[in-house]
């Protein structure tokens, strides 16, 4: 771009017209006019200082630092990155989203299921099914059958506090 501007100015100083410069360099006339105007006003073809408030925290140095930390450990939370770098959490999240193209997520934690815990769960489920079958028998209801297991499909129709008393009062809804 700078070499194109320099070419425009050198042709202008050789007394070529805007139209001729535009056709020789295959650039729009407006580009030639703007470059000549800028050269006449400021005496240079380099980029001028922009107006407005300059970036203070989202600098290329900070962006690079956050990028390195996130790529080194992708499980690191933005809160920890903010604490370690001394940059505000909002700014770190903004840089991660807008500058690095990262999407926010929360790491989901789940219970580790070993063979032992799977067996314990299975035994508890069998006990629960036996208990529900006994409840059905006590209420004189036929339990809903699914995959050869007996269980009721509804819970207590009352409020949350009435769930335990639902067995005695017969407030369960059943599928026949």
From TrEMBL:
Subcellular location(s) of the protein:
Nucleus
Signal sequence interval, chain numbering: none
| InterPro entries for this protein | Homeodomain-like_sf, WH-like_DNA-bd_sf
Name the Gene3D superfamilies on file: Winged helix-like DNA-binding domain superfamily/Winged helix DNA-binding domain (1.10.10.10)
Q: Which GO terms describe its cellular component?
A: nucleus
What is the superkingdom listed in this entry's lineage? Answer: Eukaryota
PANTHER family in alphabetical order: PROTEIN CBG27172, TRANSPOSASE IS30-LIKE HTH DOMAIN-CONTAINING PROTEIN
- Can you name this protein? Uncharacterized protein
